[in-house]
Design goal:
2 copies of one chain form a homodimer. By secondary structure, the first copy, chain A, is mainly α. In chain A, strand 1 and strand 2 form a beta hairpin. In chain A, helix 6 crosses helix 8 and helix 7 crosses helix 8. Chain A has 10 helices and 2 strands.
């Protein structure tokens, strides 16, 4: 617990300035790119636990995750960018199709696992970066949901946890903790969201509360998604980059999942 | 061989009018949508050979392939469509993330296989549809490359085949056949491409020849991609929709792969 706290303090000291001033000089984009590439590295490393492909395929896939992230993040600033995104996905399917043919050990399921790496590790962090570009409050809102949900789920679960939530995926989580996380996560997020008009001035209080409840639920699901992947491939932590917390995908599992959903919501609002 | 010929004649009778007049009333788009959804059905059916997931997940995935196809094809007609494509991919990762958590039998590798179904079965046919919308000659060019390469690879291989090409993926193919397919496929395509100015009037003959050689090679790789998937999951044909030929993915494996590459090329030319 002591290591965990020290790591959290160091992370806060490093991340808070990046979060606040990172909009300049692409600093926040670069930070998210590093997280995305690091996550892809952790994900490929996990897959090696089950089956070792030639190392160059893993390195290529980590690099391609970074490329896809960049395409997603910079696409927003280019007119007609839909074509570039489509081209990026076409290129990746052709590329890994060629590898499928010429690398004997690369089978159908490896093709799928590559696509899982590419999409899972690029989309969440790309959403993060684009949301930051749109407004600091959106990112603070999303981090608040993820962190408060996580924290209260832990404490409420410790104190009142009786019924197992979903033991096949994460044996320690309880229904009571999940409800506690949902209520308090949504509460803190709603208060912040209402005070800052995070979705714009036209939205009623009820809208912010409903979104906060959904966001808190998705935050917990994001946590469980990362756990289910770990279970599927028999690892405990994605890495030990943040001592006491685990790897990038252990630490950002909830926030990247909420970031994806929040980005969908905010884009639909802007479009509407 | 007789069944094969009869099927080919029936396919030609059905497809030629759709190809020529299909630009009206979205007929060609709908035809490609049917192929895309049918391909997804075949692909999921193949995966069931290795592991049976709950049927509703397969049905959902076939439907989502159709949705992704539609998004890709109609995105080209909407301003700011990049955002819709991004949203589509985000939505799919969130959706299957939720299934990953709540369906015990749905593991990490199933998540990957779903993404493989979605991308492999939507992108190729979407490229086909968009190319047709851009020009009939482009689609004729691509069908010519795929069919001539296939036909000459078969006949040259039958007559002169000595050295196995890639026995682990497709035991019957020979190096001699592949070279024969490459030479004659590129020859017919080049002649057609030069006569019709298929890439526009500004491109030298050498450009069309090089593109045709690459397209013929990719056509053969596309064939091998579909074969490798079949080998990976231990099936012989994707279905028996076209008697003597197999299923959609047996019949359109080459052309959908060439369509993806050709779409990348044509888009880059238009952008440049």
């Amino acid at each position: 617990m002591k290591t965990r706290t020290i790591t959290a303090i160091i992370m806060a000291i490093v991340m808070i300035p990046i979060l606040i001033w990172g909009d300049h000089f692409q600093i926040f984009n670069l930070f998210c790119l590093l997280l995305s590439v690091g996550a892809a590295f952790e994900f490929r490393n996990m897959l090696r636990n089950e089956k070792k492909l030639p190392l160059w395929i893993d390195i290529l896939t980590v690099a391609m995750t970074g490329a896809l992230f960049s395409l997603l993040v910079f696409a927003g600033t280019i007119p007609d960018a839909w074509i570039f995104m489509t081209l990026g996905f076409l290129f990746l399917v052709i590329l890994y199709g060629i590898i499928l043919v010429f690398v004997n050990d690369f089978k159908g399921s490896d093709f799928g696992n590559v696509l899982a790496t590419l999409l899972y590790c690029s989309l969440g962090f790309a959403a993060f970066a684009i949301l930051r570009h749109q407004s600091l409050n959106l990112v603070l809102y999303l981090l608040l949901v993820a962190m408060m949900t996580d924290m209260f789920a832990y404490f409420v679960g410790m104190k009142f946890g009786r019924h197992k939530l979903i033991p096949a995926v994460s044996p320690k989580k309880s229904v009571e903790g999940a409800i506690g996380g949902l209520v308090f996560g949504a509460l803190f997020a709603s208060v912040f969201g209402i005070l800052t008009n995070v979705f714009g001035p036209d939205f009623p209080v009820l809208f912010v509360i409903v979104v906060s409840l959904v966001a808190s639920a998705l935050s917990q699901i994001g946590d469980l998604v990362a756990s289910k992947f770990k279970r599927s491939y028999g690892i405990k932590d994605y890495s030990n980059l943040f001592p006491g917390h685990g790897g990038i995908l252990d630490r950002f599992d909830s926030s990247m999942f909420v970031a994806m959903a929040l980005f969908v919501l905010v884009s639909l609002i802007a479009w509407y």
